[in-house]
Amino acid sequence: MQFSQVFGLDHLKKKLIANIQNNRLPHAQLFLGAEGSGKLGLALALTQYLYCSDRTDEDSCGACSSCRKISSHSHPDVHFTFPVAASKETSTQYMNQWREMHGVSHYFNTQDWMSSIAKDENKTANITREETRSILSRLSLKPFEGDAKTLIIWMPEYLKKESNVLLKLIEEPPQKTYFILVAEDLQQLLPTITSRTQITKISTYTLAETSTFLHNKYGLEKSQIAHIGRLAEGNLRLAIQLIENETNDFATYFREWMLACYKNDIKSVSELTDKLHSLGKNQIQLFLKHGIAILRECLLYQTVGNYIINAETNQIPFIEKLSSTLNASFIEKIYEQMNDVIYHLQRNANPKIALFNLSINIRYYFIRK
Ligand SMILES: [Zn+2]
Q: Which domains does the chain have, with CATH numbers?
């Protein structure tokens, strides 16, 4: 991947290029950014630039043998480590899936990755002891082609018990080895590791950037872009999913769900929960994001005088009606609880139970008004 293929982040690209040109590339770096940011793309572009035999001041050439091997994830000196599903497995077994995943986008999260390798998105992600052994043996080899080796560790948060092996490697690196850790959550990493890396924070894309990205990629109309941009909040993974999963009519599901809760119709709630459950965890999260956006508009409509609702035209009567049936503090509570459910779904909560519990709470708020 070339720098030009990573959306935005121009100031970071310049800084990374300057590091290489001035021979000041740290041997251990941590690229830290939220889901849907450009952190993995940036790590790949940096690696390609490092090995390119015909680079310019702006970018790798994209055509030399190194560039071609790196962009197809098959350069013998560039190694990858990422979470897998079973205890005896290693990343090298999944390089084909890894390549396929990058063919689609580099904004995927752990859940997307796990469902692509395990066919069961509920499997627990893990960077295994076998993997750390494999890292040790791969990095003990002399570089095959260039004069340096690189290990990109995607989501080192999943190293857990094996973190000490990495720590030792970073402390006493094999000759000419670069480590690039690509992570989302600093709290999940050992401070002894992070203190030995140079941290580059990759900011979340702004609304304007998200809109430009969507316009370039899909050429959508302005109103559609604005709607998706608001929902995605700078997360390009979410933005892509919202556009590519438009077949699910979340707006209708959400209206039906609120109505069933309002009418205290447990049978319909249960049927709807089943229907959502059958779509899978990812889709449930997208559905809840839709709901959260609707509730945000309800809250603003209710509390800000002369507020003009910011939503698709066919949603506006529903937002007005929902605002008149719930008071602001209850809207806020439902909003928070939906965010909580998303958080727990990403951490292996049972979707059916989580949705049903949420429905019971919402029903209670409608009764209390
Ligand atoms: Zn090149």
A: 3-204 (3.40.50.300), 245-368 (1.20.272.10)
